[in-house]
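Data card: per-record layout.
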Amino acid sequence: MKQRQQAMSILVRGRDRDSVKAFQQVLKVSQLRGPALRALAGFNDPQTAEKVLAEYNKFNESEKRDAIGTLVSRPKYALALLNALERKDVPSKDVHAYHIRQLIRFENKELTEKIKNVWGNIRETSADKKKQIAQLQAMLKPAYLKGADLSHGRFLFKKTCSTCHILFGDGNKVGPDITGSNRANINYILENVVDPSAVLGKDYRMSTIVLEDGRIVNGLVMKETDSALTIKTITDSVVVAKDEIDLQKLSKLSLMPDRLIDEFKKKDIRDLVAYLASPRQVPLRGPRAPIDPQTKRVPFAIEGETMTVLGKPRGNIGSQKMGGYRTDRWSNNDHLWWTGGKPGDKLALEIPVEKSGKYTVELVLTKARDYGIVQLYLDDKKLGGPVDLYNNPQVITTGVMTFTAKELAEGTHKLTLEITGANPKAIKRYMVGLDYLRLVEAK
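The structure for this 443-residue chain is written out next.
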């Protein structure tokens, strides 16, 4: 096999016309088919599309992406691909909007009509959206993208996009899995974020269901039986009895809303787009802490290492200097460090509140390979869900985690950290580190 792979490498570099038959034959050989699939795009051979499609369902995900890349490289190959989509031999989810945009550029009337009938909706992007895309293109130059915080970009993806999309295995299967799409192309990302309905597969067109009692349900029809429809909305799955449906209409719009990033700050757009274009997964982290460069502290923060411990929790609680960890920054280069705790143990800390009011709670915790999962409580009421503090190999922070504004009376309040377990990949030491807490008066 090693000799065959060396021979394949020579044939790929040589681009010899007589190599085509060899490339087609080795589509049955798993160790050779990836380079063969990519190489076949360089040759116009009438048998290529047939040979590739005959083996398609035996390919892994990476090989399927290579196969689709080859099949959209020429109009005749593309027609064969669209026929396979029509026969359900190839799932429509395997063909991304990027591929369709590429096919439209052939300006082949037969191909364009086939796309509309088999794959989905195509329309021209409006003038105002083209203007917005151009403005974002001008802003997101390589030099500006180089300063992006990819971990914060992942945080924004988790918050904004993962309800419907999967990237690097993380997210939900409402819209297409975008891991294998042309994410390295910034223009492709912007076109799909700003105008998601311009090129839209049939499987992702929104249905509007009007029920007899006046209720309206918008979403994707995921399952249909003789008696009911299962509709996937952005937030839920809804089962609707067919005899209760007054009207069902298939929209030309995507479930993904327009103007999704209009309220984002420039840095947030940069971080999200850079993360979407990233070739690999990065740690999940919120925005970086607003540390003052002069004082090395977050203004008006309660430093974790200075907080009063309530009761006598299991383990040791103290301060740990963090200046030696160069992959992130900690307020005051220090944090409260809890070691020796076990699942079920709780650490309670005192929070002084100088005047009554409504406050947003900001927190930063530490993440490392031997840290646990914690549930936070404010005055014994949960703050969000469990926070996984595992990260490997670097020691980093969670970034700023912000929790909904709470009414707090003047006086003393309590922050509780409960160890609930650890990531399966973590070294089971269940450590916890709190950098700081800050109460921000809500407007």
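Known properties of this structure: The first strand starts at residue 120 and ends at 122. The mean pLDDT is 88.

See the next section for split statistics.
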